[in-house]
User: Which sequence fits this backbone?
C-alpha cells in the first residue's frame, strides 16, 4: 500500500493489524491484541473518509478557506484622550515614583 492510494487488503480494509502494530511500535505505544483490531477498524474508517473527500474535490472547484466571502469592517481612526499618570497608576497593586512597582526578576540588581 502506498501513501497516496487507498487500496483494499484481502480482509476488505485499507490498513492491516500488522500495519497498526508497526505504527504503534514507531510511536512507542503499548497496544494490546484487542486494541489492534479496534484501531485497525477505526483507522480504516478514517482513511476511507479522507479518500471520499478526495473524490469530491474536483479540479473545477476553486479551493476556499470560508464558505462565504469575508469582508473586514474598519472603523475610522479617531483621537481620544488617554489616561494621565495618576489614572494609569490608580489600579496598580503597587506604585513608586510615578511608575508601576513590580517584583525584581532574574536576580537583577539596581
Assistant:
Amino acid at each position: 500500500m502506498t501513501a497516496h492510494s487507498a487500496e483494499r487488503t484481502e480482509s476488505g480494509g485499507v490498513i492491516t493489524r500488522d500495519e497498526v502494530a508497526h505504527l504503534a511500535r514507531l510511536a512507542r505505544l503499548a497496544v494490546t491484541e484487542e486494541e489492534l483490531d479496534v484501531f485497525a477498524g477505526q483507522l480504516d474508517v478514517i482513511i476511507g473518509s479522507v479518500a471520499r473527500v478526495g473524490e469530491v474535490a474536483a479540479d473545477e472547484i476553486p479551493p476556499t478557506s470560508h464558505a462565504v466571502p469575508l469582508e473586514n469592517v474598519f472603523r475610522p481612526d479617531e483621537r481620544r484622550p488617554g489616561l494621565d499618570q495618576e489614572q494609569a497608576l490608580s489600579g496598580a497593586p503597587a506604585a513608586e515614583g510615578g511608575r508601576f512597582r513590580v517584583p525584581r526578576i532574574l536576580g537583577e540588581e539596581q
